[in-house]
Structures are given as structure tokens and as C-alpha cells.
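C-alpha cells incoming
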């Protein structure tokens, strides 16, 4: 993946962000019904119509829906006629945003609509996520996502990088921050609870729920026309670890560090970081890889521990960081998204507002 900062790149910004209220279950709603209000929200915020959007890209998983090409149904909520320029990634929406960013870099479009959604409530998401694993050695053993995260947490404890009280502190801080987030599924004083898989307790794990999110991207002066203070994407990059967990050091995330370096995250300090850390132990790994000190506000939205709609939680991190730039609460923010077991794939973006 080539570096995407520096001369020659086109200025692209997040100009609008919307998300659903995240809930444990939304049985009464289809994916389209869940998504449509969010699409209307971001279009209304910019004054754009569907016909004004140059490119549309979505992120979702057919495994969650249990049917092939389920994402095509969501296009009913977007409006695919007259024909639109559209694409889809079988990934978190953060990677759909990356594709849209690349599209805008080509100059073939000036605006893009990016959305993602996931309904985890219909089935056992812990079992569904095992299908991401190596099909020859790991997948036949059916280790679920919590068990693998527990292996990572225990490796961190054994290395002296953290302990259970520290992990409990991460959970408490995140859920306390979520009090101010009206979209969060969990917030406030949530007990750590019993062990799910030792050393992870209920409070160390993300809630299972349904949700959707959307952003609008715009390039150059078009971004300033649509938003009073655009969140400029100054750098963005994504990397992947080796597929086999057995050849990785689970206490570190070199792919996150490299993505951050290529995105320019280490050039100047950031004041805010929205980290996609579904488990408390993963925040420990990410803080180290991203060199985040106590002076950085981490997950002011509550993060994935407060709401973790699969396939949308990473895009939400980018959106939450952008909103803080929009309203002047942040001047330089870092957003991170992950996919796969134990932080296997990682995307890092640096967002900045115009000088005040």
C-alpha cells in the first residue's frame, strides 16, 4: 500500500456523519429500514440529493444476514435509479470509506456517500466470526472471537503490560464517556460481571447489537461549501497481520503502527483518538502501537465497548472523530478501525480541521 500523504494528493474531508441508536435487537426492522433514516440524515445535513452524489460505497457482511448478496437490498434505501456509480466491500465501512477516498483522488467524483450496517442479533456473532479464521488449522476448532481475545489479554498480562484491574479501568472510563453519547447501547455504571472467558469478564467485552452509520465525503472547495469546518483526511492507510495467529506476537500490533506511520500520525501530536478496540485488552495494544499518552482523549464517544455494530463500528470511529473536528472540540484527531481476530487488519486515518 503506497503512502497517501504529501504532495499530489487531493484534499478530501468528511463533511457529515450520522448513525442509528444502537440496540441489542431490532427484530422489527429490516436492514433497509434501519439504514434509511441515517442516509436521510447525512444528506439533509449537507443539502445534497442522491443525484448529487458522485460515488456510493457500502460495507457489510453477507454472513451476518445469512444470504448471498444481501447488500444489494440496501440499495433500495439509497436509490439506484437512475443508475449510480456504486461499490461494496465485504468489510467494515471504514474500508468502504477508504475506497471512496481513492475514488475521489482520481478526480472522477467530488462527493461520495459511504454507509455500513450490521445486524448481529439474529444469530450467534461469536460463531459467525469464526469463519474469518484460517480454514485448515483454526476454523475447524471453532475458537470464537471472545476466546481468541482472551488469549490476547492473557498474553498481555503474562508480559506485564496490563492486569485485570487496569482492564476494568478501561471499561469503566469508556462506559462513563458513553453517558454523553445518545447513540450508545451501553453507558454509565456497567458492572464487570462474571468471566466470559478468563481473564475477560462481561465488562471487558463489547455489547452485541444492531446499528448503521453513514458519512459524506467531499473534495476541495466543495467540502467547504457543504460544511462549516470540514474534517480533512490528512492521511489514511491500512495494513494486515499474518493470517496465522500462531506466528504473531499478540501483545503488539505492527500493522497498526505501520498504518499510522504511513498516514502521518506521528508527524505531530493528536489531541483525540477514536480507537476501534472491541475488548479492553485491545486498547492496551493500540495505545502502545500508536504512542498515545495520557494527554490524548481516547474514545470520548465510549468506543466499541459502548456500541459495537459489526461492520459499522470502525466507520463510526471515523465519524465520531470527524464530528469532534466539525464542532471545534478537536483540531487533529486519529481514527482507527480493525477487522478480524486479535486486531488482524487495521486502518488508521488522521483528521484535521482548518486553523482557527
Amino acid at each position: 500500500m503506497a503512502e497517501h500523504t504529501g504532495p499530489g494528493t487531493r484534499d478530501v474531508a468528511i463533511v457529515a456523519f450520522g448513525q442509528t441508536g444502537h440496540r441489542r435487537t431490532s427484530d422489527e426492522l429490516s436492514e433497509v429500514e434501519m439504514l434509511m433514516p441515517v442516509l436521510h440524515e447525512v444528506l439533509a445535513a449537507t443539502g445534497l440529493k442522491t443525484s448529487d452524489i458522485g460515488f456510493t460505497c457500502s460495507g457489510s457482511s453477507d454472513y451476518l444476514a445469512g444470504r448471498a448478496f444481501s447488500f444489494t437490498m440496501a440499495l433500495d434505501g439509497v436509490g439506484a435509479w437512475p443508475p449510480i456509480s456504486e461499490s461494496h466491500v465485504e468489510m467494515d465501512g471504514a474500508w468502504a470509506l477508504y475506497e471512496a477516498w481513492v475514488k475521489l483522488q482520481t478526480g472522477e467524483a467530488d462527493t461520495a456517500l459511504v454507509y455500513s450496517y450490521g445486524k448481529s442479533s439474529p444469530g450467534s456473532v461469536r460463531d459467525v466470526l469464526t469463519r474469518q479464521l484460517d480454514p485448515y488449522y483454526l476454523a475447524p476448532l471453532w475458537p470464537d472471537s471472545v476466546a481468541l481475545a482472551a488469549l490476547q489479554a492473557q498474553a498481555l498480562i503474562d508480559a506485564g503490560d496490563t492486569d485485570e484491574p487496569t482492564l476494568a479501568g478501561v471499561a469503566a472510563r469508556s462506559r462513563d464517556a458513553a453517558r454523553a453519547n445518545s447513540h450508545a447501547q451501553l453507558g454509565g455504571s456497567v458492572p464487570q460481571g462474571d468471566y466470559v472467558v478468563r481473564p475477560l469478564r462481561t465488562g471487558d467485552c463489547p455489547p452485541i447489537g444492531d446499528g448503521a452509520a453513514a458519512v459524506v465525503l467531499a473534495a476541495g472547495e466543495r467540502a467547504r461549501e457543504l460544511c462549516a469546518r470540514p474534517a480533512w483526511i490528512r492521511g489514511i492507510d491500512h495494513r494486515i497481520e499474518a493470517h496465522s495467529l500462531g506466528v504473531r506476537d499478540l501483545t503488539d500490533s505492527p500493522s497498526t503502527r505501520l498504518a499510522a506511520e504511513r498516514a502521518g500520525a506521528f508527524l505531530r501530536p493528536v489531541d483525540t483518538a477514536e480507537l476501534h478496540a472491541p475488548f479492553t485488552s485491545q486498547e492496551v495494544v493500540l495505545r502502545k502501537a500508536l504512542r498515545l499518552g495520557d494527554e490524548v482523549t481516547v474514545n470520548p464517544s465510549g468506543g466499541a465497548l459502548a456500541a459495537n455494530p459489526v461492520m459499522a463500528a470502525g466507520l463510526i470511529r471515523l465519524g465520531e472523530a470527524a464530528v469532534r473536528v466539525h464542532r471545534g472540540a478537536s483540531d487533529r484527531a486519529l481514527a482507527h478501525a480493525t477487522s478480524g481476530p486479535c486486531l488482524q487488519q487495521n486502518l488508521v486515518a488522521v483528521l484535521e480541521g482548518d486553523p482557527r
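note: The first helix runs from residue 31 to 46.
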